[in-house]
Amino acid sequence: MSHGTTSHWTIGHGRGLESSDRDKYPLSYAIHKMNNAICKGLRLPMRSLANLRRAKAISTSKVHNETILVKNNEEFVNKVMNNDKPVIVNFHAEWCEPCKILTPKLKELIEPLDNLDLAIVDVEENADLVHTFEVKAVPAVIAVKNGLIVDKFIGLVDADMITNLIDKMSGKKTNS
């Protein structure tokens, strides 16, 4: 580093970025805040799928909340990381049988809520996001609040775990 004001950090698989690269790598810069929080306490290991391609999202209907159509990294930063409401992010694939169960269940539980959004990311079409979040298995769900990952799960989990996560993110009290 030639200047004393330039900080250095790594994203994903150890690739170094400088703070002066903020405009060139906006997603990595935004993720930097999350990685710091994870390293300082949450330790939420992300997973990543190999051999993936370009970015795309699936469309869903809007009832009370917003189902976020993540088409690229910039949209992810704008609509998930910078969202005023908490967001449940569902990384899934069309070929994934457990995803075909989880995705409709998440929609059913989140759509009636006005204080929680759902983002659905097709891993086959969002290689950059998959790499950034090191998604190795689907379905993978992360919960983002105030630009930070606050919870996650991988795979098809029981209904109580899904409901508890949604209640926690939407501010509902749970009976546990």
UniProtKB/TrEMBL annotation:
Gene3D superfamilies, alphabetized: Glutaredoxin (3.40.30.10)
Classification via SUPFAM superfamilies: Thioredoxin-like (SSF52833)
BP terms from Gene Ontology: cell redox homeostasis
CDD domains membership: TRX_family
Location of region: Disordered: 1-20
Ranges where the Thioredoxin domain occurs: 49-171
UniProt feature coiled coil, ranges: none
GO CC terms, sorted: mitochondrion
Family affiliation: Belongs to the thioredoxin family.
Name of the protein described by the UniProt record: Thioredoxin, mitochondrial
Species per Swiss-Prot/TrEMBL record: Papilio machaon (Old World swallowtail butterfly)
